[in-house]
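<goal> How does this chain fold?
<sample>
Here is the protein in question

***
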Amino acid sequence: MPRKKVTNWGNFPQVEAEVTEAVKPSEIEGLIGRSETLIARGNGRCYGDSSLGDNILSTLKLNKFIAFDPIEGTIECESGVLLSDVLNVIVPEGFFLPVTPGTKFITVGGAVAADVHGKNHHVDGSFSNHIVHLDLMIADGSTIRCSPTENTDIFWQTCGGMGLTGIILKVRFKLKPIETAYIEQISLKTRDIDCTMQLFERSASSTYSVAWIDCLASKTRLGRSILLLGEHIRVNDLPSKLHGNRLQRAPDKALNIPVFMPSFALNFLSVKAFNSLYYHRQMKSESRATVHFAPYFYPLDGLTNWNRLYGKGGFVQYQFVLPLENSYDGVVKVLEKVRHSGQGSPLAVLKLFGKADPNAVMSFPMEGYTLTLDFKAEPSVFRLLDELDQIVLEHRGRIYLAKDARMSADVFKRSYSKKVASGRFSSSQSKRLEF
């Protein structure tokens, strides 16, 4: 089979790989048998190289729904089903995803492999906390069922294990009941990082919370933000004009970025101007609105191919988490380092995590704050990120593997105390990080 160039959402890095699509488990078993190494890849919406390798199995044709039980509030599907497709099935029936990342265009298998988290981790944990069971094809070609009560060791290695334990075939997981598809959104404008973190902790009872951070604000305004709180609206609280569409699916239409932007378009000055405009567009210190779930949870999904804004060279997304007791000091040091670096991040997002699951092996969340930054991929950015790695290590934090494209093996080993052994299933990332 001819090899082709493959890259994930960040368009960095790019690899030459043999890519195989499979529809039946028997096809996957045969592929495992004749491949020295193999890694599963869903919709390619991770940012780095965790689903890249010499031999890639595309799971996108494993896209069948198996069972939906509205009484138990569960759904079972194959691993290549997109969260967007799950939402199209469950929202009209009065259910929502228990946990969702910032895009609905990832596969269910990818959600398990990265153990995705959302704006509600402090309340509902990560995706693994809502799995009933999953079916996994392992290195000898056999399929096992694992769950929090069955084959528990491999279950917890698979959740957050970045595809290194086998090929996820099917997943059954719990859903969240809702009365409407709408969110009550409260937007709080903060003057600096102190105010932002204080508001996070005062708002701990809110189901959803996330803050956009202006990472280039001046020192006296360092960390100023727009904090967005959210709750699912009950039908009795929904404006009457929306009752007819109270369980409306997400819209299919989106604006498109048709071409890659020139590399010079995104620079320190343009990002600084964008951040200032975004911060000042909200005039009041607090505003309330009734919004559909799509723009609240998936604002960037409304812009198809938004990754092209960073140019053909691609971009890297850098997400770290710090323990609660070290979060303030560490986040401030990172923001100061970014501000002085001359590098700009138009997307800087802060969230508060709850306690980590004690069974987790390589799952990312821990109790504390997590900050996400986007940078155009270029040598000066990689030097900056090496410096940020040291701040994260000094504050006993770690970097999210689903976003990582360049972390060193030393940083990985010093920040993840447990790891999944890489054998038949391995990726460009697992080779780079030496596990």
